[in-house]
């Protein structure tokens, strides 16, 4: 496998890792700019809603907002991925999708 070198971009301070450079190059090619970084409380809510389908509790908000650094974000993601609610959310998603596929197949004699 060959290695790709990150493309040159105008907004070099936005790039934190090589993947960011590829994303930013595509944005700049279209004349777009990246969105501003989300505030810690926004990140907390997004991660909770995306991974578990539930908002964070008041205690979880207080704990995260006391120390919202990168280590806390890593811990948060690992914690949410290990919760049963993460598996339940994806199980519901997959069961709905499988039901739709089965219904489509039955309706179209596949």
Question: Overview of this structure, please?
Answer:
With 110 residues, the chain is an all-alpha fold. 65% of the residues lie in helices and 0% in strands. It is built from 5 helices and no strands. Helix 2 packs parallel to helix 4. It is flat and about 55 Å long.
Question: Could you outline the blueprint of secondary structure elements for this entry?
Answer:
Blueprint: H1 18-29, H2 40-52, H3 58-66, H4 70-82, H5 84-107
Largest sheet: none
Q: Using the CA coordinates, give the radius of gyration.
A: 20 Å
C-alpha termini separation: 39 Å
Note the beta-strand portion. under 5%
* Fraction of residues in helix: 55-70%
Number of strands: 0
> What structural class do helix, strand and pairing data support?
mainly alpha
Shape: flat
Give the count of helical stretches: 5
One letter per element, helices H and strands E, the order comes to HHHHH
Q: If you average the pLDDT, what whole number results?
A: 87
* Regions with little confidence, pLDDT below 50 for 5+ residues: none
Brief characterization of the structure:
By secondary structure, the chain is an all-alpha fold. The protein has five helices and no strands.
Features:
110 residues, mainly alpha, 5 helices, 0% strand
């Amino acid at each position: 496998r060959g290695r790709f070198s990150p493309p040159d971009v105008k907004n070099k301070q936005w790039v934190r890792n090589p993947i960011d450079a590829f994303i930013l190059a595509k944005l700049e090619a279209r004349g777009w700019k990246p969105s501003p970084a989300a505030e810690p409380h926004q990140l907390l809510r997004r991660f909770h809603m995306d991974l578990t389908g539930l908002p964070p509790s008041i205690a979880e908000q207080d704990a995260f907002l006391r120390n919202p650094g990168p280590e806390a974000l890593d811990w948060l993601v690992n914690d949410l991925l290990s919760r049963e609610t993460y598996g339940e959310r994806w199980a519901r998603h997959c069961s709905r999708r499988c039901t739709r596929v089965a219904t489509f197949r039955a309706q179209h004699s596949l």
